[in-house]
Task: structure prediction
Amino acid sequence: MLTIKPIESIQIGQIQLCMIIDRETVFKKSLFEGIEKYPEKLALLPNGQTFGVVRSFLVRTADRCALIDTGYGSEAGGKTLQILQKAGVKPEEITDVLLTHLDGDHIGGMVEAGNPIFQNATVRLSHAEYEAWIEKGVGRAPQSIEKARSTLALYQNRIETFEFDSQILPGVTARDARGHTMGHTRYDLYSEGHALSIVGDIFHAYPLQLRFTDQSSAYDNDPIKAANVRESMLKEFSQNDRLVCGTHVHPWGKVMRSPKGGYDFESQ
Result:
């Protein structure tokens, strides 16, 4: 049985990062169409599934207290708000909510009982994501689009969109990670020569998708693009000293080439 800490804190130079486990979950083989044809892939999903998590991230700088993604929300079993409060962080102290994308397990924690939780926060997301979901209503199921629209409507006067490769906050830069969704974003943290990337949903069942980077899931809006992004980013990470953390992966650390092929985590 895995022992999972609900919150872990590390320093990235002058940036304090708290990695929060909002909820635990599993990812099943049914997410991967045609996987039954490949015994070597099935072997990476014992009993047809693998353990996963849903994470949110608290980023503290000299003058900002930002949350990257917000989890499911307490009404759906998410614990981000509860963990923040235990850590002494009040909702009104959150200055910014940065979204990797608009799926429900990333925005659910923005709302409770129909009210916005983070009353003083500016919500930041990529223009591509906002345009697809909110303006055009494309790329996801209607109910998901409606949830995203109703959630952001509660923050309508405090939403700012950005282009990729922009510095969103001091030491935090948004990178293009499209494929999972139409404006999926990776956030790079950098301070005093130290770096960490929060990669969102570039993988779910990580033992499988680190080993076989071409294996996208049913969650991916553009499976081919998602696979290309996954391979490109993992190759990049394996060639530098950057720490990496995903939304749905419980280990985090440096990415390295695996002698079996593909990649693996050198867990911290």
